[in-house]
Design a protein that fits this description.
Blueprint lengths: L1 H7 L7 H19 L8 H27 L2 H4 L5 H9 L3 H15 L3 H8 L5 H12 L7 H15 L4 H8 L10 H26 L1
Helix pairs in contact: 3-6, 5-6, 8-9, 8-10
């Protein structure tokens, strides 16, 4: 089916819409296979589908970064990309804003995180933890050290869930040649920031 699509429309090889159509057809074929009562599904199959979903999420974020850079939100009469994305997907405003924030962070750097997400080795939640951890590093941390922290968190993220990675991220300075006192101070600040955000979120929801 996918081959037939490209044979009939060669230009779709270089079209995002054409690629999306091919991907939708492939997912439909997968769903049709899973709908067969006698089909045998293994744990490895489920893991592979999860990895595929993560790769699709990476593509979604890359596309979101592209439309953000193009100013599609401003051109639509919305207040910005996040408002446009929330309206286009009927998503919660806060969730849409977080998506746009992550898309921008990945587009503006975080090459190791972007690559791992594109390979399905990390989830979007892992990527959010890493993006925030790198963003919140002390001002004195150099660009090279930020890459070092990112690489360390990517490696850890491939082995643990987002909650455990978040705890590890509080000790991000442990990946650098910094004193234990500096690492402790950064961890304390991270915890205070998390508590403040939790209080603000609770107050907003009341």
């Amino acid at each position: 089916m996918v081959a037939e699509l490209f044979e009939s429309s060669p230009e779709s090889l270089w079209s995002v819409a054409g690629r999306v159509t091919a991907a939708v057809d492939a997912v439909s074929a997968l769903q049709a296979c899973l709908d067969v009562p006698t089909v045998c599904v293994s744990g490895a199959d489920v893991a592979a589908i999860e990895r595929l979903a993560r790769r699709v999420d990476a593509a979604r974020l890359a596309a979101l970064a592209a439309v953000d850079a193009a100013g599609i939100g401003d051109g639509s009469g919305m207040s910005g990309t996040a408002a446009w994305w929330a309206n286009a997907t009927q998503a919660d405003g806060g969730a849409a804003a977080r998506d746009v924030g992550l898309a921008r962070a990945l587009d503006g750097g975080l090459g190791a995180t972007r690559a791992a997400l594109a390979e399905g080795e990390l989830s979007g939640e892992h990527a959010k933890v890493i993006a925030k951890a790198v963003r919140d590093l002390p001002a004195g941390v150099t660009a090279g050290e930020r890459e070092q922290v990112e690489a360390d968190l990517v490696a850890k993220g491939k082995k643990v869930d987002p909650a455990k990675l978040r705890r590890a991220a509080r000790r991000a300075l442990d990946a650098l040649d910094r004193s234990e006192a500096e690492a402790d101070a950064h961890e304390d600040q991270s915890l205070r920031d998390e508590e403040e955000r939790a209080r603000a979120k609770a107050a907003f929801s009341m």
